[in-house]
Amino acid sequence: MRLLPAAAVLLWLGIMAFFAFLVAPAAFATLEREAAGRFVSVMFPRYYAVGAGLGILAVAALGARWARSGWSPGEWVSLALALLMLVLTLYAWLVVLPAAHSAREALSATGVAPGAVSTEAAAFARLHRLSGVLNVAVMAAGVLFLVVEAVRRR
User: Fold this and answer.
1) Would the pTM of this model clear 0.85, i.e. be above it?
2) For 80-90, what is each residue's pLDDT tens digit?
3) Shortest CA distance to 55 belongs to which of 77, 92, 81?
4) What does the CA dihedral 124, 128, 130, 134 come to, rounded to 10 degrees?
5) In the list 41, 47, 51, 58, which could disulfide-bond 82, CB 3.0-4.6 Å?
6) Residue 38: half-sphere exposure toward Cβ, Cα within 13 Å
């Protein structure tokens, strides 16, 4: 139980890196842009659900650790980082993803190419950037979480 929070976050980061650096680039390198976009769109709800599940597991394990032995200063930092990761993931999944999906559908309905300048294209591009920023923030918080956990163990 002592290492469960770190294991959950480490697995979460591994999944994020696998998707961001291998799966998505491979999809866009081998499939037509539209097909790759559809594939990634189908994967994202699962990606966020797994992240949320691992985040809940990390927070619950931190809570169990607190109940067993009390809080040290590093524990509060770990909890804050795990909660930040979870909240950002939930926001990306439940707010940004549906909005991006709607913007993508509106873009497809207009027949405008994703790279073209239009209101729909600008909305999709803004949401895509926001999604990327949220994912980078979750990854950065996860790396910091692992550092805090490692230092706290010394």
Assistant:
1) yes
2) 999 999 999 99
3) 81
4) 150
5) 58
6) 5
